[in-house]
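Lecture notes, structural biology module. Today: joint structure prediction for complexes of two components.
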Amino acid sequence: MSTLELVLAFVLALVLGSGAALAQTPRLGKPISEADIKAWDIAVMPDGTGLPPGSGTAVQGARVFAEKCSACHGEGGKGSPLAPAPLFGGAPLTSGIETPKTIGNFFGYSTIVFDFVRRAMPFSQPRTLTGDEVYAATAYLLWLNKIIGENDVMDARTLPQVKMPNRDGFIIRFPDKI
Amino acid sequence: MGHREGGDALALHRSVPVKKALDDAMIGLYQNGERLMPGNGYPMRLLLPGYQGNMNVKFLRRLKLTEGPAMSYYEGKIYSQLLPDGKAYRFHFLQEVKSFITHPSFGLKMNGPGYYEISGIAYSGNGRISRVMVSADGGKTWAQAALQEPVHSKAFARFRAPWRWNGGSAVLQSRAWDEAGNAQPTRAEFVPCGRDQEAGYESSRVSQPALQQHHELGDRQRWGDQTCLRLSWSSPLSSRSS
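The predicted structure, tokenised, for the full assembly:
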């Protein structure tokens, strides 16, 4: 099914559903402005769709990390009592099904790092990092995992091109359900 | 895939197949006649019948139609189950066929040999439960349990079977099938999807929280977990004789 067909199918379902639902709607909430939706529209897709402007390198990211991340994740991402799991390395995934997952040994897409740092970190102040800071922190984490060089510039074009070591390590469990 | 995101601090987001969205996905505003409680996702949450609980995004704030999955942190890392060969399941969101015995169970006082009801719960994310078989001799012989009507799709179904206990050790097991013909896997079949057999399971992290339920009577064993109850009956047995 093409993207257009998907969109049409979805819109149709909304239209068909709305007539019956309207009479019973509990009249909760209020219309939201496009600007407010845009502020929430932060998902980054594996192909880089949704990546914002900005750029950063691991060298720059090391400074961001030391200032905004290391309080929990420890110096150089090695972990601390607040967030014990190291952010790099990891045993081979054949070491057992409880093997700790890291960016280096598990993540299939570099965009996962960017998306999660931007939406959820720092833990106490999510959504406070600038675009440049997120790119830099992402570059630093990829560098810690020996995936990119310390001066490689990560931006909306280069980040999705980073080939993650475990890209092909996944099996879709229920292909017929998707 | 569509994309659903919550308004929690981490803005948890999950990819849901459009097929599912158009089938039976719901947005929950109320539960049991009142507004959702905060811990359950107030003001609204997604509800995907038959899917793992973590897919039912709480504090729902946004649905976005996308061409493919977002590969979010939660599906790209957390809820991707690692397998023994080093590969990992991606999008194993379905709750597969499962049954478990709730009676007799831990803490029940057995008042001597005699008739007891074996009863429990079965469900399948694929549809209705069609059959539950029960064994009281460790799987050597099986009897079909009665299902309490109505049996709803993707919902708990209560099963019951009479059992005459002779007072000795017994291993009780149940196994379920759904209307699509899917069978609850045996423990040996299930192990590749979860933890090591001896270690038991952590059902919240695996797609098919399992198979045969073991209730070992008169055998002092540690508590297992939801899916592998190894129960000690020595305490109820002593109180019976006193």
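Point to remember: Residues 2-80+226-233 of chain B form a domain with the Sulfite Oxidase; Chain A, domain 2 fold (CATH 3.90.420.10).
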